[in-house]
Each structure stands twice: as C-alpha cells, then as structure tokens.
Amino acid sequence: MGMFTRIIAGCRSLLRRAQVERELDAELQDFLTTAVEHKMRSGLSREAAIRAARLELGSAAAVKDGIRDIGWESIIDRSWQDVRYAIRNLRKSPGFTAVTILTLALGLGASTAIFQLADAVRLRPLPVEHP
C-alpha cells in the first residue's frame, strides 16, 4: 500500500469512525463464517466448528484493538483524547490553570530574553574588520 493511500485511509478512519467500525465488524464476521465452513469441511460438527473458529480468533474486542493500533491514526486519536482530558482537568481547577499559564509565560519570556542577550553579546560577529 502506498504512502498516499495509507494517509487517505487513516484520515477516513479518523473522520468516519462508525462506518469503519461497521466494516471491521463485517470483516471479522466474514472471517468467522469462512473459518467455520472450512472446519466443517474438515469433518467437525457445526457447533464444534464454531467453537474452534472462535477459539482460533480469540477475543473480538482484542482483535479489533490490535487492528486499530496498527496505523498512525491511533497515535493521533490517543493524543486527541489526552488533549481533551487535559482541557477537562484544567477547566475543573482554574487557579492551577492560571498558575500554570503564568509559569509558562514567565519561563518562555525569560528564555527569550536570555537568548537575545547571549545573541547580542556572544553570537554576533564583532563590528571590526579583522577581530
């Protein structure tokens, strides 16, 4: 699968989650049906074939989680969940949020000021012809 195709498929799975979930359920059901038919042709009864196919597949939820974790979109999805969780927690405690934002602002401002000073004093070449 080409890179462009993977990007398109990942965007589709992020934007159309319900449809992708239905397609995954249908694919797992088709796999089970095919596995049951194959086992029945090898001589098992229908109940034994269904049981053997389900044991071979394992937990459907675990299989679906494994399939979802393969692509890059799972990283984006988890990151988005983490951002939403952080925003919810910051909204619950406005005092902590204010202190956090103030600390970040002061830290960034101080870092910028120190870099500007170091740039002016040390990093720029001296204004003479042959230093």
Kindly describe this structure.
The structure is a single chain. With 131 residues, this protein is an all-alpha fold. It has two domains: 90 residues, no CATH class; 33 residues. Helix content is 83%, strand content 0%. It is built from six helices and no strands.
Question: Keywords, please?
Answer:
131 residues; mainly alpha; 2 domains; 6 helices; elongated
Topology:
Blueprint: H1 3-15, H2 17-41, H3 46-57, H4 60-68, H5 73-92, H6 94-123
Helix pairs in contact: 2-3
At a glance:
By secondary structure, the chain is mainly alpha-helical. About 85% of the residues lie in helices and about 0% in strands. The radius of gyration is 28 Å and the shape is elongated.
Q: How large, in whole angstroms, is the Cα Rg?
A: 28 Å
Low-confidence stretches: none
Quaternary form: single chain
Derived structural class: mainly alpha
Report the count of strand segments. 0
Helicity, as a percent range = over 70%
What are the secondary-structure elements, in order, as H or E? HHHHHH
Give the integer mean of the pLDDT values.
85
The largest pleated sheet is described as: none
